[in-house]
Amino acid sequence: MRRAIFPGTFDPFTIGHYSVVKRALTFMDEIIIGIGVNDSKRTWFPTEKRVAMIQQLYAGEPRIKVEAYNGLTVDFASEREAGFIIRGIRTVRDFEYEETIADINRKLANIETILLFTEPELTSISSTIVRELLQYGKDVTSFLPEGLDINI
Questions:
Q1: Is 45 helix (H, G, I), strand (E, B) or coil?
Q2: Model confidence, pTM
């Protein structure tokens, strides 16, 4: 079975994230969307709400699981017997960072990282921007996957 972890904060889960998962499902048997808990990060949505929102979004897709985790992503992937980590890349800066982490993850646990480049029309969308828009009361529905309920 080809199992992958798709890690992130997902605060909130955007159409860019959704696109990466959709594309990864074409070559993975199972994807665990791993919501990393980082107490030093200020998030808009509590971890439990992010888990619930994404679980509801994928309720009809048995190949998707959603879990929160603490610690290193590579350890989470090993615990879940995932051979791959999926990451989305929007910029060259993202690529340079992810390349370094991928090399370390491969050395630590023999886990491969698969980088999926963001579709051009989605490169400007980030959770950070969506959170800022939310803070100012703006409608963010065009940046979220259809069916993602941020009011759970």
A1: coil
A2: 0.94
